[in-house]
Automatic annotation (TrEMBL):
Keyword Transmembrane: no
Domain Histidine kinase: 41-256
Residues of the PAC domain: 1-37
Native species: Mucilaginibacter terrae
Domain of life: Bacteria
Assigned keywords, A-Z: Kinase, Membrane, Phosphoprotein, Transferase, Two-component regulatory system
Protein's UniProt keywords contain NAD: no
UniProt protein name: histidine kinase
Complete-protein stretch covered: 407 to 662 of 662
GO molecular function, one term: protein histidine kinase activity
């Protein structure tokens, strides 16, 4: 970013000069790259112990089930669910570190987005009793996209809607088709986001700094990841929000 003023040529015919401040972004870029490499390396290293842990827990769950040890069985099941969540997080981090480097690949197939939403809502990681999730399906909409990655986007937006709205809140998800585009909208009645923050929300590592959000854990990469995935499909992503009233995140993807 540069700010300043260009002065006209001086009377003695010397070249005009530029006065002001220049911010060198090279350092910031290198910093981002270092963070990126670090995230990639750590995520990669965590993957194999997690795979083993998941395997051991599955054996424990099976054995406890056979011996009808319901306490051990339920503990093993709970641990397995947490390991699954952690694996999903780590895969997300790994994807993020690959984004922007051209290493991410889309595995496109044609599928019904309304079915994917219904499936995602049944996913154990989203099931909780603190918020009501309401689905307003808008008919059968076929799209051609990377099903897993679009699923990640929906999961991410839904878990944010839950995370950034008070207990007892309602989260509505809808899907509609218009002018060759499928639109998915996730609306909460939570904290809301100011206009200034909305402009930076999809930047990597960006998190809103406020008394209401400071105690909520996060890394500021979920929305960045969502935007990269949607844009890689030639789609659009955005948010409509008012501070204190709630937010509606939406994305659109071309229909087949
Ligand atoms: P994280 O939640 O890990 O911080 P995200 O990239 O998913 O990262 O979100 C970036 C920021 O956007 C969050 O820190 C939060 O401040 C804000 N945000 C995201 N979703 C919502 C929402 N539904 N309501 C209010 N604020 C949100």
């Amino acid at each position: 970013r540069a700010t300043g003023k260009v002065y006209p040529a001086s009377e003695n015919g010397q070249a005009p000069f530029f006065s002001g401040t220049m911010l060198d972004i090279t350092e910031r870029k290198q910093d981002d790259q270092r963070k990126n490499d670090f995230i990639g390396m750590v995520s990669h290293e965590l993957k194999s112990p997690l795979t083993s842990l998941s395997g051991f827990l599955q054996i424990l769950q099976l054995k406890a089930g056979k011996a009808s040890d319901s306490f051990t069985h339920s503990m093993a099941t709970k641990s397995l669910n947490q390991v699954k969540k952690m694996t999903a997080l780590i895969n997300g981090f790994l994807n993020t570190s690959r984004l922007g480097t051209g290493k991410i690949q889309l595995n496109k197939q044609s599928f019904a987005i309304d079915e994917l939403i219904a499936e995602t809502l049944n996913d154990t990681s989203l099931i909780q009793d603190t918020h009501s999730l309401i689905y307003e399906p808008g008919g059968h909409v076929l799209i051609e996209a990377d099903r897993d990655k679009v699923g990640n986007v929906i999961t991410n937006l839904l878990s944010n809607a839950i995370k950034y709205s008070p207990k007892g809140g309602e989260v509505k998800i809808s899907c509609s088709a218009q002018k060759g585009m499928a639109t998915v909208k996730i609306k909460d009645s939570g904290l809301g986001i100011s206009q200034a923050d909305q402009d930076k929300l999809f930047d990597r590592f960006y998190r809103v700094q406020s008394l209401e959000t400071n105690h909520i854990a996060g890394h500021g990469i979920g929305l960045y990841l969502c935007a990269e995935i949607i844009q890689a499909h030639g789609g659009k992503i955005g948010v409509e929000s008012e501070l204190g009233k709630g937010s509606a995140f939406w994305f659109e993807l071309p229909i087949v």
